[in-house]
Amino acid sequence: MLQQSWSLLENGQKEGYKVAYTNARIIDPESKLDIYGSLLTDSKVIADFGESLFAGGVPSSVDEVIDCNGLVLMPGIVDIHVHFREPGQEYKETIYTGSRSAAAGGVTTVVCQPNTVPPIDSVILAKYLKYRAFETSHVNVEFYAAITKSGNKLTEMALLKEAGAVGFTDDGLPVMNAHIMRQALKYSSMLNVPIAQHAEDLNLSAGGCINEGIVSEELGVTGIPSVSEAVMVNRDILLMQDIANVHYHVLHVSSKDSLRAIADAKKRGINITCEVAPHHFTLTENDVREHNSMAKMNPPLRSEEDRLAMIEGLRSGIIDCIATDHAPHDVGSKDLPLGDSAFGIVGLETLLPLTLELYYNQNLDLSDVLGKLTYKPADIIHVPRARIRKNFVADLTLVDLEHSWEVDISKFASKSKNSPFSKRIVKGRAVRTVVSGKTVYVLR
Question: Do the beta carbons of residue 382 and residue 328 sit within 8 Å?
């Protein structure tokens, strides 16, 4: 039986501690490096790597040797869209349990969304979140701060950036007021941080619970039309096109019409990026029939045509990165009729194998797949991580590409188990997660 173990980050590896990773297939997606060799970490950074490193044997000055047995050693995964529910809903997830889930999935950096209770819309709450992360996390924790207070007044964006915010969003809800959104885009351009939008026109989607289509009609529930997403994306592109140095990011894109607008904006040189969640390129609205509320999320699972568009968007580069939208819920919030249950699924522990399906199905090559999980999301939030370079922080994930396993939600490290991927056979798994030079997770 496989055993898992975790260790708190505690600010990284101690000073002067050297670890040698030998017999590894080292892949760095940004530089297209793909070699068999060794890598050395010294304290929190990568000291050296290469095919001939330790050709004469590992020196006695190295404190620890880890034989990778030919497995893939890659930059740590960066997930820029998670909900850890702290503060306010710790019965669903905490930074401690969420970071354990991240580590088990090979994720070394997460970006928490601000729709906690209360939301992260003040410096005091931002500092509280950072303090809790420092005390209890197994991985690096970054955060978005809220764009607005209650949807009708901008937050103190400059002060929140000083407190550590890597960007701003009202995720969970869109910024419906176009004037407020335009003001937020202007301020963010001066702060050099992205505005991330949950793209949804609430007037079009109000009361909906799954995608508007054949399945919603069959089940007799109100649907959410895909145009509700595309309308908001198009509106925001119009709002930002005359603002210099602005960066607009579309969260969890799901609609082919949204991708069409994003692609057009990119062609015109507009600084727009977007992410997709694994469930939107692996599942469709048809899966709601089998999984019921476990397959209810917002944006909802769309049509097969939309799913294929997501894969093509990843292949073409229109979609910049992959993020989970990890949204834990307790049983009481999910075990309800479809129209009454909460939106969202957990995703950190299935992120890597579901994404690797793109590689195994020959949709993308391995380097491109891993790039969508590493340096590309890191660049969106301007965090200098997710590269294998000398003197770069040693955030690493050791991956067994051939490890086939059945998803068992009862064994998730997350406090919540709401996932439609229960019993799915997947391939590829993180067996060691290293953050700032320190091993924080091992699967044996």
Answer: no
325 is catalytic: yes
Q: Is 291 annotated as a binding residue?
A: no
425-435 vs 396-406, strand pairing mode: antiparallel
For residue 325, say whether it is annotated as part of any ligand binding site. Answer: yes
Interatomic CA distance for residues 67 and 73, integer angstroms: 11
The DSSP annotation for 200-223 comes to: --HHHHTT--EESSHHHHHHT--E
- Per the annotation, does 343 bind a ligand? yes
Residue 421 is given by DSSP the state T
CA distance 377 to 271: 15
CB contact set of 34 (below 8 Å; sequence gap of 6+): 25, 26, 27, 28, 366, 367
Closest CA to 261 of 247, 251, 272: 272
Give pLDDT, residue 16. 96
Backbone angles phi, psi at 187, to 5 degrees: -65, -40
Q: Which residues of the chain have pLDDT under 70?
A: none
Predicted pLDDT of residue 2: 84
Specify the amino acid at residue 5: S
Answer yes or no: is 382 a known binding residue.
Answer: no
Query: Taken in order 338, 339, 341, 343, is the CA torsion positive or negative?
Result: positive
Q: How many CB atoms sit inside 10 A of residue 341's CB?
A: 19
**Do 304 and 284 contact (CB within 8 A), yes or no?**
yes
Structural domains in the chain, sorted by start: 4-74+391-443 (2.30.40.10), 76-380 (3.20.20.140)
Catalytic residue among 28, 79, 170, 325: 325
The order of strands in the sheet holding 140-143 is 77-82, 107-112, 140-143
Distance CA 240, CA 238 (A): 6
Q: What global pTM score does this model have?
A: 0.98
Give the max Cα distance, the chain: 69
3-state helix, strand, coil in the chain (%, to 5): 30, 25, 45
Closest CA to 297 of 273, 320, 280, 275: 280
